[in-house]
Amino acid sequence: MSSLMLVCSVCGAANGLSMLRCAPCGESLVTDMPVEPLYKPERLKKLQRRVMLKYAVGGVTVLSVLGGAGYLIYERGVKSFSTLHTIANPRYVT
What we know:
This protein has 2 domains: 1-31, no CATH class; 38-94. The chain is rod-shaped, with a radius of gyration of 35 Å. The chain is mainly α. The protein contains 1 helix and 2 strands, in the order E-E-H. The relative contact order is 0.06. It has one helix at residues 41-88; strands spanning 6-7, 14-15. 51% of the residues lie in helices and 4% in strands.
């Protein structure tokens, strides 16, 4: 038997955690007690802003790195192409 049990508020009998009704008396074990949220709304907004900022900075960083790499590849390709073009067609040398 599990050490965690639900106690009926009417008869005091111990019931399993998966029970919805008390076994001896049939009373509902589900309460309408308000549940306090894990994060308060102000704290949640602050966390959401922090996560959004983190992803925005990460996205800008990734785009910058990819853009820089793309530019370097482009520059290298253009220089390689112009060098090959000059070697293949010497009359186009400027």
